DNA sequence: TTAGGGTTAG
């Protein structure tokens, strides 16, 4: 019966008005006035004025509470009608609050119940567990056992077992259940089985499961989900087979446990079969099932299907919304992800920690620090930083993406708990922002905390990329040793980083040795090895490797072609470059991206075919970005083509007026041909727009420590020593015939000043430092100048 | 009328 059937009149009596006021006072909306009117009418039946409504009269009202505000309203009615004092009614109210996520109100009701029975105690424990207040649940359970004088029953244990945080407290409860003489029946038994499985004690769980006197679907699910959560997918599947042999059919819980492992094992077929089962058995209206399906399709990159499931869901919860935001974020569509987040706000869906975990990388990618700061303060205001390491890590990563490593570091310092990902995020953040030295220092610091945090794949990958950026092969080799010690050398990603490190440091032979040690059935290591050959001008070797890759049946991807085209570009192999640029489209059906066009513009430009490069840009199927025009502008500098340089820079400033580097490049083109007026115009333009070029830097490794130098930098503690060494070296090389090339100084200054500028170039500072530390021979400086 | 087993993350 619906509460509307109880409505007997439409005008409000004084008592019903009282109910209304009371219901407003405790926060329920006017829309639910009929509920209070109905109850008030119950009280004021003119024919039986003394008769208060019986508990049975409230039954339909209990069932009508589909929203939190309904519960508040019913609460008011119970108070007014004098039925709140009934233990039964108030405990049901307690449960209703808990079901609607309001454990605080549950507690307030609980406190008002004077003669609590075990139903009341059990309900309060489960109210806390249901809403995630595990510590409070344990406290209430203790009070129940120690102070109430009542005996826990079979209803008590399942929620308490569920709230265990570690296996030891679980074991204690297991003993307690055993001592009190409870049979491990289906509920308590399944709880214990799942508790052991959850903490990874699958053998104990399995033994208990096998010895259970009775097993229902829930018991099977406890065991299957235990295997799934521990990544033992084969055991989960064989358990499923046994379950079916015993005539049990999968329900929504079984389905929800299995769907995530379909995505993990890349088994789309099983996922589709389960989806079919869901539809056939009418499980498609379960929110959990829909969320699990949605997530599985998103993990396979099938966003269209995920979106369709979301659109067709009758009921959506926070997990559904979070999953959609994460789905688009993880599939490189941050703008749609952001739209979903906005829609959440429009629909008044409150974000939780996981919403923010997905939102942080989106904000990081938007490039606006003020948004980043508001997101951070939103989290801090709610104290979520303390609750969840993953969120802290996500915020660090966001600041790293925005280029604010000082903020990322501050967040790191303030984290109450740091796990391996916190360290990895900081290290890779520094490395990605060009602060290789800081990355290395952090990695060294991490090693000192080895007892608390064990490095993983991500650590080696970040550390290696930092060492390869500063060209520190000795330190890189130490990481290599650590990788071998941890038996990770056969991991494709770690191995590829080693290839990359040796390659970037110029140790091509070592890179090749490493390459032949790692599995090469995917494009990942091939891309690295092709790229490092290309980088050092070994275009032919890069091409040979590319051919070998095809012989071994490994399909090249977009990145392979970027590596290959850039190898052609660095070796001046124009014809080969064209050939593969066409081949990728014709033979491999790949559409060239901006990066491929960028390589081609670079290839043609470097070779002096500026008109052809311009023609290629004009034929592109999408608008060229700053990297394309930047490549053309760079080529104009090499070939001193002022006219084309002006065209390229005009386009460049249209698409990216913020990058100071391009202004410098154009002014250098003018400077090269001595057009100092042009230089002045461009420089003042850059100054007016408040742009400052990020200075170039050079690094050198001495005794395992890496030092970084910037042009004209005087802040080094050994500055005087370096300066003296530099003077001596310059004098020496001048005495053996070195003539400074003033053309390389792109400023309109006197020749002696040009000497000074050349002499304090960051690479020279680094070499002078190295020389002063190691008594390096001046030959290094000579060699360096040739490459200048 | 209280209970077990389920979906999202850095």
From TrEMBL:
Question: What are the alphabetically sorted keywords of the record?
Answer: Repeat
**What are the residue boundaries of the DYW domain, all occurrences included?**
737-770
Q: Where are the transmembrane segments?
A: none
Report the GO molecular function annotations: RNA binding; zinc ion binding
Q: Which BP terms does GO give this entry?
A: RNA modification
Recorded hits in PROSITE patterns, A to Z, give: PPR
Q: Does the keyword Repeat apply?
A: yes
> Which NCBIfam families does the entry link to?
PPR
Please give the family membership noted in the entry.
Answer: Belongs to the PPR family. PCMP-H subfamily.
Protein name per the record: DYW domain-containing protein
> Which species is listed as the source?
Trapa natans
């Amino acid at each position: 019966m619906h509460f509307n059937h109880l409505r007997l009149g439409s005008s409000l009596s004084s008592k019903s008005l009282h109910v209304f006021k009371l219901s407003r006072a405790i926060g329920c909306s006017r829309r639910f006035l009929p509920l209070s009117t109905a109850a008030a009418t119950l009280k004021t039946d003119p024919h039986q004025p003394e008769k208060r409504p019986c508990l049975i009269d409230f039954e339909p009202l209990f069932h009508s509470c589909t929203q939190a505000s309904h519960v508040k309203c019913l609460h008011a009615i119970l108070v007014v009608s004098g039925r709140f004092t009934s233990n039964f009614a108030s405990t049901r109210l307690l449960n209703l609050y808990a079901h609607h996520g309001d454990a605080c109100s549950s507690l307030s009701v609980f406190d008002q119940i004077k003669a609590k029975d075990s139903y009341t105690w059990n309900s309060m424990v489960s109210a806390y567990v249901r809403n995630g207040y595990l510590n409070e649940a344990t406290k209430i359970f203790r009070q129940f056992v120690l102070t109430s004088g009542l005996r826990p029953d079979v209803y008590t244990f399942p929620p308490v077992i569920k709230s265990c945080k570690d296996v030891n407290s679980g074991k204690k409860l297991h003993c307690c259940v055993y001592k009190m003489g409870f049979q491990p029946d289906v509920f308590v038994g399944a709880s214990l089985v799942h508790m052991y499985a959850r903490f990874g004690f699958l053998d104990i769980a399995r033994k208990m499961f096998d010895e259970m006197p009775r097993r229902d679907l829930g018991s099977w699910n406890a065991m299957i989900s235990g295997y799934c959560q521990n990544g033992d997918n084969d055991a989960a599947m064989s358990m499923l087979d046994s379950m079916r042999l015993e005539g049990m059919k999968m329900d929504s819980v079984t389905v929800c446990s299995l769907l995530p492992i379909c995505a993990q094992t890349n088994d789309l077929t099983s996922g589709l079969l389960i989806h079919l089962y869901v539809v056939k058995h009418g499980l498609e209206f379960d929110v959990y099932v829909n969320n699990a399906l949605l997530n599985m399709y998103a993990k396979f990159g099938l966003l269209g299907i995920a979106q369709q499931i979301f659109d067709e869901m009758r009921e959506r919860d926070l997990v559904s919304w979070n999953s959609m935001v994460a789905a688009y974020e993880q599939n490189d569509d941050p703008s749609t992800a952001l739209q979903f987040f906005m829609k959440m706000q429009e629909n008044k869906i409150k974000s939780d920690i996981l919403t923010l975990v997905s939102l942080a990388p989106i904000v990081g990618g938007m490039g606006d620090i003020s948004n980043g700061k508001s997101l951070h303060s939103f989290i801090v205001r709610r104290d979520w930083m303390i609750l969840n390491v993953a969120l802290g890590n996500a915020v660090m990563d966001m600041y790293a993406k925005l280029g604010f490593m000082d903020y990322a570091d501050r967040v790191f310092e303030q984290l109450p708990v740091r796990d391996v990902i916190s360290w990895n995020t900081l290290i890779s953040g520094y490395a990605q922002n060009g602060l290789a030295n800081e990355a290395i220092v952090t990695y060294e610091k991490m090693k000192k905390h080895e007892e608390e945090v064990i490095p993983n794949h991500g650590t080696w990958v970040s550390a290696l990329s930092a060492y390869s950026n500063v060209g520190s092969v000795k330190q890189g080799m130490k990481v290599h040793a650590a990788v071998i010690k941890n038996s990770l050398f056969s991991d494709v990603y770690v191995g590829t980083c080693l290839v990359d490190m040796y390659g970037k440091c110029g140790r091509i032979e070592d890179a090749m040795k490493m390459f032949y040690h790692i599995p090469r059935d995917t494009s990942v290591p091939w891309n690295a090895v092709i790229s490092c050959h290309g980088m050092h001008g070994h275009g032919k070797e890069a091409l040979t490797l590319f051919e070998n890759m095809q012989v071994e049946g490994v399909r090249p991807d977009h990145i392979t072609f970027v590596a290959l085209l850039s190898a052609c570009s660095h070796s001046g192999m124009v014809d080969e470059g064209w050939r593969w640029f066409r081949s990728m489209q014709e033979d491999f059906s790949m559409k060239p991206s901006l990066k491929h066009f960028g390589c081609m513009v670079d290839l043609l430009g470097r070779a002096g075919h500026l008109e052809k490069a311009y023609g290629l840009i004009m034929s592109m199927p999408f608008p060229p970005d700053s990297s394309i025009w930047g490549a053309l502008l760079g080529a104009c500098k090499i070939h001193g083509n002022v006219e084309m340089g002006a065209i390229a820079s005009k386009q460049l400033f249209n698409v990216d007026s913020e990058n100071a580097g391009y202004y410098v490049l154009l002014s250098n083109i003018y400077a090269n041909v001595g057009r100092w007026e042009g230089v002045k115009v461009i420089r003042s333009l850059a100054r007016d727009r408040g742009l400052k070029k990020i200075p170039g830097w050079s690094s050198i490794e001495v005794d395992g420590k890496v030092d970084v130098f910037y042009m004209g930098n005087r802040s080094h503690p050994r500055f005087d020593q370096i300066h003296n060494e530099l003077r001596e070296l310059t004098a020496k090389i001048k005495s053996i015939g070195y003539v400074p090339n003033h053309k390389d100084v792109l400023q309109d200054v006197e020749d002696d000043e040009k000497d000074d500028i050349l002499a304090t170039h960051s690479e020279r500072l680094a070499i002078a430092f190295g020389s002063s530390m190691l008594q390096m021979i001046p030959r290094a400086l000579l060699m360096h100048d040739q490459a200048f």
